[in-house]
Amino acid sequence: MSENHDYTGKSSDRNRLSLTADCESCFGLCCVALPFAASADFAIDKDAGRPCPHLQADFRCGMHQSLRQRGFRGCTVYDCFGAGQKVAQVTYGGKDWREAPGTAKQMFEVFPIMRQLHELLWYLTEALTLQPARPIHEEVSSALDETERLTRLSPDSLLELDVAAHRANVNTLLLRTSELVRADARLKQKNPSQRQKTYGRGADLIGAKLRGADLRGANLRGAYLIAADLRGADLRAADLIGADFRDADLSGADLTDSLFLTQPQLNSAKGNADTKLPPTLARPAHWSA
After folding, report:
1. Among 92, 144, 263, 279, who pairs with 124 as Cys (CB 3.0-4.6 Å)?
2. 217-241 per-position pLDDT tens digit
3. Integer distance in angstroms from the first to the last C-alpha of the chain?
4. Exposure of 165 by Cβ count < 10 A (0-12 exposed, 13-18 middle, 19+ buried)?
5. DSSP letters for 95-126
6. What is the CA 203 to chain-centroid distance, rounded?
7. What angle do CA 171, 164, 45 make, to 5 degrees?
8. Pseudo-torsion of CA 190, 192, 196, 202, nearest 10°?
9. Residue of 110, 104, 143, 109 lying closest to 126 (CA atoms)
10. Is 215 helix (H, G, I), strand (E, B) or coil?
11. CA distance 160 to 213
């Protein structure tokens, strides 16, 4: 693996910083480009490309501190993985859609593509920090380089990009990473004969009673864990990529070494001060003390 891709310690921290939303450097893109429908997550309907009525002239939210109380829970869950500032400051060189209205439609179409690429960068960056996956770090590093290159394409090239094909290629590496890490975790268990039940990708665990469950090294990729009781569950080394944690109770759960967990997943769940999190993620403000 090249010296430029030792994603441990400060190097990894710096890379993740660029994958964290910086709303001060964005043009309120998530508040304009994306559609939402009146539901438990949003108080109103909004079409794609139409500014939210609460978006101010300085691109700030006019009710940021009370979004949940006023029926906009979905806004507090969403995270762009830093795609907003990349589109605003790199793709369009700091010129906003109000200043250059001719770019607005294209900018709003580019943003969700960039968001997908930045999410992949988040996963690949994490994969390079996982020692059991070191045998494939060179391949992961190459995929990271290629994904970063794609984020710097011109707007026209980004719109022509086959994101689905690129995601499929990256996912193959992420799955191999997961298998290596989870196999290593299972080998370290004190009672391997007592291993937890195996769940397949996309498992239907809606409302499941999993309080205190030993889910170390479990494959929960794409699992539906909506409103599941995961209080006190051990999710170390569990693959959580794409798992739906809406209203799942993670109070007291241990997610310290879970794989591919993201901030939006935590934001959609419930938890408390006893929930153990990876150091790269923040405890959501709405969680109980």
Report:
1. 144
2. 999 999 999 999 999 999 999 999 9
3. 43
4. exposed
5. --TTTSGGGHHHHHHHHHHHHHHHHHHHHHHH
6. 19
7. 115
8. 120
9. 143
10. coil
11. 45
Q: Is 110 exposed, middle or buried (0-12, 13-18, 19+ CB in 10 A)?
A: buried
Sign for the pseudo-dihedral over CA of 203, 207, 213, 215: positive
Which segments of 162-262 does DSSP mark as H helices, in order?
Answer: 163-187
Neighbours of 46 (CB within 10 A): 17
Nearest CA-CA partner of 238 in 268, 276, 274: 276
Question: Can you tell me which residue has the tokens 């998530």?
Answer: 30
Are 180 and 133 in contact by the 8 Å Cβ rule? The answer is yes
- For each of the chain's 289 residues, which pLDDT tens digit applies? 334 445 454 455 657 778 999 999 999 999 999 999 999 999 999 999 999 999 999 999 999 999 999 999 999 999 999 999 999 999 999 999 999 999 999 999 999 999 999 999 999 999 999 999 999 999 999 999 999 999 999 999 999 999 999 999 999 999 999 999 999 998 887 665 445 566 777 899 999 999 999 999 999 999 999 999 999 999 999 999 999 999 999 999 999 999 999 999 999 999 999 999 999 999 999 998 7
SS3 category, 16: helix
